[in-house]
């Protein structure tokens, strides 16, 4: 499979929202509000200070020598300032690989792409992500890419918003 990674564009918002809805259902058994997710994705694409989305495109040559590209996976990056290290952590979130393209190196290609960007960006001190405790397959994948468990647990206080 020939993969090319590109940044998301506004026209990708519907696809990314569908994938986010599917990912939430698959990994956390949560049914999210489609309108809220669509608005959130669009806001992230429009403002790189909020988020950066990357899409893995599977490319193949068609009969007429034209290249066909199909989106097969995505991830989103957000940033967290660390005063302890005087630098930024880049958080990998909203990871999704289309079911028929799983176990074919799509996430690894996305990860390597953002890892290269992070290593080439001044002030970025590393990559982080969180994973459901029961998602052993994902944990193995992350470990195979050189990531290590950080020893933290995530706590949250969610504030339900009327935004949509």
From TrEMBL:
Residues 3-164 form the N-acetyltransferase domain. One of its GO terms (molecular function) is acyltransferase activity. Keywords: Acyltransferase, Transferase. It comes from the Bacteria. Its EC number is 2.3.1.-. Pfam families: Acetyltransf_1. It is an enzyme of class 2 (transferase). This is GNAT family N-acetyltransferase. It comes from Novilysobacter erysipheiresistens.
């Amino acid at each position: 499979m020939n993969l090319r990674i590109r940044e998301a564009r506004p026209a990708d918002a519907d696809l990314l929202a569908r994938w986010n809805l599917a990912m939430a259902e698959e990994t956390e058994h949560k049914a999210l509000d489609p309108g809220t997710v669509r608005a959130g994705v669009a806001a992230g694409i429009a403002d790189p200070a909020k988020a950066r989305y990357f899409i893995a495109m599977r490319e193949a040559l068609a009969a007429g020598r034209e290249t066909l590209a199909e989106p097969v996976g995505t991830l989103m990056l957000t940033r967290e300032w660390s005063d302890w290290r005087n630098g930024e952590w880049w958080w990998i979130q909203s990871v999704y690989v289309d079911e028929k393209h799983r176990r074919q190196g799509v996430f690894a290609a996305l990860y390597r792409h953002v890892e290269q960007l992070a290593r080439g960006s001044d002030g970025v001190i590393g990559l982080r992500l969180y994973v459901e405790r029961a998602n052993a397959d994902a944990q193995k994948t992350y470990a195979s890419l050189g990531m290590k468990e950080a020893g933290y647990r995530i706590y949250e206080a969610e504030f339900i918003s009327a935004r949509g």
